[in-house]
Amino acid sequence: MSGSRRDFLRQTAALAVGQAVPPAVPVSAADANAIVIDPKPLFDISPTLYMQFMEPLGTTDSSVEAAWNYDIDDWRKDFIDVVADLAPGAMRFGGLYSRYYHWREGVGPPDKRPLTRNYSWGGKETNRVGTHEFVDFCRRVKAEPFYCVNFLSDGDPRYRNMKEGNRTGDAKEAADWVSYANDPDNAERKRNGAAQPLNLKLWQLGNETSYGDATFNKDQSIAHTIEFARAMKERDPSIRLIGWGDKGHGEGLWAKDVIERAGEYLDFIAIHMMGQSPKRPNTVLKGLQYQQEPERAWEELIELSNAVETRLSELENAMGANGRKIGIAITEGHLSLGPRNTHPILFEWLSSVYHARSLNIYQRHGAKVKIATAADFEGTRWTQNAVMIGVPAGKSYMTPVASVARLFKRYNGTQGVGVSRAPSGLDIAASRDGNKVYLHVANLQYRSSVEASFAVEGMKVASGKTWSIAPENLRQFVSVDQPDIFMPVEAAIPGQPTLKWRFPAGSVTAVELTCV
User: Fold this and answer.
1) Which of 206, 319, 218 is nearest to 269 (CA)?
2) Number of C-alpha atoms within 13 angstroms, CB side, residue 250?
């Protein structure tokens, strides 16, 4: 292929203009390199599948504070613009910060809100961004807002007696928050300038309830899950609750027992896809060694993505028949590479193979997975952030994980479907919306392109489009100086009598097929 990949994609689009609709090829006659789709709907794709996660990170990373423009006393416009383009289905606020967060410190007149210490991440938070501001942000970017409530500090007793007082939140405090947000007649919210309910319908009970030696054990967590759920649903029976089901304290996955004993109150079971770290003893993913062996780093990242599938399958099996009506929520998850939070590979397209494959896995498991994320959300420093905020007043931009999530979220169907056959080297998640079939295709091969035709069982493929991110150099990186380097290129799929497309090595592509 001569010229750049971007030039090739643009040239292909130009050549395809004005072509006649190609005749359909029966699936039985499709060539050996065909991507064959079974269009039978398997499950509904959750509108909250592609989630993002916001947490005040203190001195570790100026995250929430950096996104606020104090000159105009509002969110930064460049930040709003890039998140609206990313278009997450849901936005979570909490994390470890929820263990010591009292929600009333973030409502009322801003100049009356106290500074509070960020025990996990250092420094203090102004609480300028509280419930009203976060909900307003989510409405602007069309994401469903949800909070982690202070779940008795996830059981960590130290927060009961801090220098600043008791930082633990009980079930009444959580229930009062539900009333504040959702009760049409709540006087406290009305005094703070919101006459209409905020309608927060999705809530998570705590954050990482099983992680660490000081947190709840399984029995304690289940008992408090029931206590909090009863108190919160008494205030608003229509809310949906996320309970915790991951491993801890040597007890294995909690999901089965949580569902059996508290499942009547829960809509989702959460785990975090943490610890996605190199397993090879001589890994090239520590430090900068990957820069000398990028192809080996690519292979290791694919290996790490395999663990996502293993974890999900383990959780689905643990949930069993009793969990049929309960969805899975991956409310945190990201690559964990050293040096912690500063690894440059996460700005490079090299990391896209992990992100694309992980997001495809979540969608293929969409019968159970209803909420998922592959990164933390935003900040100025952590390379695991989906959105980086330029400082002091630069442009906000997406890292590779967000570029992939944006592509997959934007070009997607409403129902998951299956892939019956596909060429080796391609990782695919498929969906449909009426007569449109969508494919999310990651070419897992570092050096080789893959050409494929398209066939849909029982339907005729009349035309197709692609949106591809295909850097010539897989070590291409994004920065505030080149924030749009990973914008996808649109092209029509050429081909007669059969539509064909060549997926460049290391590329990530969304495909739209129009069927008749």
Assistant:
1) 319
2) 1
Full DSSP string of 262-307: HGGG-SEEEEEEEEE---STT-S-STTGGGT-HHHHHHHHHHHHHH
Which of 249, 173, 256, 262 lies closest to 209 in space, CA to CA? 249
Establish whether domains 5-44+416-515 and 51-283+326-411 are of one fold: no
- For the stretch 149-189, pLDDT in tens is 999 999 999 999 999 999 999 999 999 999 999 999 999 99
The answer to whether residues 78 and 141 touch, using CB atoms and an 8 Å cutoff, is no
Q: Are 502 and 453 in contact (CB under 8 A)?
A: no
Q: How do the domains of the chain map onto residue ranges?
A: 5-44+416-515, 51-283+326-411
Residue 240 to residue 504: CA distance in whole angstroms: 42
CB environment 165-185: b (16+ within 10 A), e (fewer): eebbbbbebbbbbbbbbbeee
Q: What is the pLDDT of residue 27?
A: 58
Q: Whose CA is closest to 371, among 263, 277, 271, 264?
A: 271
Q: Are strands 450-456 and 34-44 parallel, antiparallel or unpaired?
A: parallel
**How far apart are alpha carbons 466 and 472 in whole angstroms?**
17
Sign for the pseudo-dihedral over CA of 190, 194, 200, 206: negative
Residue type, 506: G
- Pair 504, 5: CB distance under 8 Å: yes
Name the pTM for this structure.
0.93
CB half-sphere exposure, 93, CA atoms < 13 A: 25
Architecture of domain 51-283+326-411: Alpha-Beta Barrel (3.20)
pLDDT(24) > 60: no
Q: Please tell me the CATH code under which domain 5-44+416-515 is placed.
A: 2.60.40.1180
Question: Which run of H or of E encompasses 429?
Answer: strand 426-433
Cα–Cα distance measured from residue 14 to residue 495, given in angstroms and rounded to the nearest whole number: 13
Q: Among 69, 66, 130, which residue's Cα sits nearest to residue 101? A: 130
- What pLDDT is attached to residue 5? 46
* Residues 101-127: tens digit of each pLDDT: 999 999 999 999 999 999 999 999 999
